[in-house]
Write a structure and sequence with these properties.
heterodimer, A: alpha/beta, TIM Barrel, 10 helices, 12 strands, B: about 200 residues, alpha/beta, 3-stranded mixed beta sheet
């Protein structure tokens, strides 16, 4: 049976893992390569590395980080952050990534999705969407909007529309982050995740809000998520992916065990 | 030495890394001449079946056909496995190698999401040295929308909507639909088994 994936996410800045709490407070949590291997050994099904380095010099650091991380990592490895062109993507693939995650660059240049897909396959293109509900709207889920620049800029379109367009242009997966839930540890935005998951025929990875095992169970059932991503709950020894999956399996969620 | 075929489509890095991690002496073939002396061959997976046209154009198809006839062990991964079949509805004008006579077809729509992405179980259908040390029911990582039918040469099936060929083998020609290079300990065992089958 196809299992639900637990994906460990590493937010990296200047070669170090950090984790934003609602994208603001930053806490240093270690070396990305070391943490990626630790998560893989701990039973994670996949690793996502999101680079939030702003500087140009940071790009070289990122490629070195990707190379070191990929060296002994034999589970799927996605890299995102600052990938704006086909050649940016090529450098990240050459360094050992299996998939790239595109966010604002795909909104600005949607052709980038098909360009990378043509070269590396659709499965290698993940579209990351930072979503925020419109509290004023009647249907806060259907009208949830796409944001860029760490949640500061409204991209001017709804999440469901953009997810559909990304799929049509050849995206392989959607990584949906709820800006409202991110960092709260109060649970995923299940309604929004379900709306996107039903709107597309490609896997949807839910992100933002993980705090307890129950949150994961909910997003895999009510949220129709194919995978769920978590960062901070793993870093500080609260739980491992294996422990999480054992508890999910006990509640009839299909997961990869033993792992 | 294990020779990995580079046909300028997709990403070789993960396959090379996994083989090197296992201690294999790894070479990359970009020209058919390189395959004339190969002692075992790996054809990695790519996104689209049409990309295998480059194997025909470069003369690689003929070189692989000759190598297989010489008894050189061969492992096709993902589209590399699909290419062993007669062809795929993904690119109807592009013939496969035809080592296995069936057609590769797309998962039926309207049941589950297509592509099939993630970790799914291998259910053993026959004894094979390729699967030694792995247990039926263990997981491998898949990402594909087309799949090969279950046949007499299927050594492991996987169920998604319906059972399909997850791994096939006839003599020293093997194919796996999943990505052993991304399937953690299980995948590395299968790659090691292939290297041992072929003493590469």
């Amino acid at each position: 049976m196809l299992t639900r994936r637990i994906i460990a996410c590493l937010d990296v800045r200047d070669g170090r893992v950090v984790k934003g709490v609602q994208f603001v407070d930053i806490i240093d949590a270690g070396d990305p390569a070391e943490l990626a291997l630790r998560h893989a050994a701990g039973g994670a099904d996949e690793i996502v590395l999101l680079d939030i380095t702003a500087s140009h010099e940071g790009r070289a650091t990122l490629l070195d980080t990707v190379r070191r991380t990929a060296e002994q990592l034999f589970i799927p490895f996605t890299v995102g952050g600052g990938i704006r062109t086909l050649s940016d993507a090529a450098a990240v693939f050459d360094a050992g990534a299996d998939k790239v995650s595109l966010n604002s660059a795909a909104l600005q240049t949607p052709e980038l999705i098909s360009a990378i897909g043509a070269e590396y396959g659709s499965q290698a293109v993940v579209i990351a969407i930072d979503a925020r509900r419109d509290a004023q709207a009647q249907d806060a889920v259907r009208s949830a909007r796409v944001f860029t620049h760490g949640g500061r800029r409204d991209a001017g379109r709804t999440v469901v529309d953009w997810a559909r367009e990304a799929e049509l242009r050849g995206a392989g997966e959607i990584l949906l982050t709820s800006m409202d839930a991110d960092g709260t540890r109060a649970g995923f935005d299940c309604a929004l995740t379900a709306a996107v998951s039903r709107a597309v025929n490609i896997p949807v990875i839910a992100s933002g809000g993980a705090g307890t095992v129950e949150h994961f169970r909910q997003v895999f059932t009510d949220g129709c998520a194919d995978a769920a991503l978590a960062a901070s709950i793993f870093h500080f020894g609260v739980s491992s992916a294996r422990a999480l999956k054992e508890q999910l399996a006990a509640q009839q969620i299909p997961v990869r065990l033993p792992c | 030495m294990v020779t990995v075929v580079d046909y300028k489509a997709g990403n070789l890095t993960s396959v090379l890394k996994a083989l090197r991690f296992l201690g294999a002496d790894v070479g990359v073939a970009t020209h058919p001449e390189t395959l004339a002396t190969a002692t075992c061959i790996v054809l990695p997976g790519v996104g689209h079946f049409a990309a295998t046209a480059r194997l025909d154009q470069s003369g690689m198809t003929q070189a692989i056909r000759h190598a297989i006839a010489r008894g050189v062990p061969f492992l096709g991964i993902c589209v590399g496995m699909q290419w062993l079949f007669a062809g795929s509805t993904e690119a109807p004008d592009q013939p496969g190698l035809g080592y296995f006579s069936q057609q590769v077809t797309r998962f039926p729509a309207d049941h589950e999401k297509v592509p099939h992405v993630g970790w799914n179980q291998l259910e053993f259908a026959a004894d094979s040295p390729l699967l030694q040390g792995v247990s039926s029911g263990e997981y491998a990582y898949f990402t594909h929308a087309w799949r090969a039918p279950v046949t007499d040469q299927t050594i492991a099936t996987t169920r998604y909507i319906e059972p399909f060929a997850a791994a096939c083998q006839h003599r020293l020609v093997c194919g796996v639909q999943f990505h052993p290079e991304k399937s953690s300990v299980v995948g590395l065992k299968i790659l090691r088994n292939f290297l041992e089958m072929s003493t590469c």
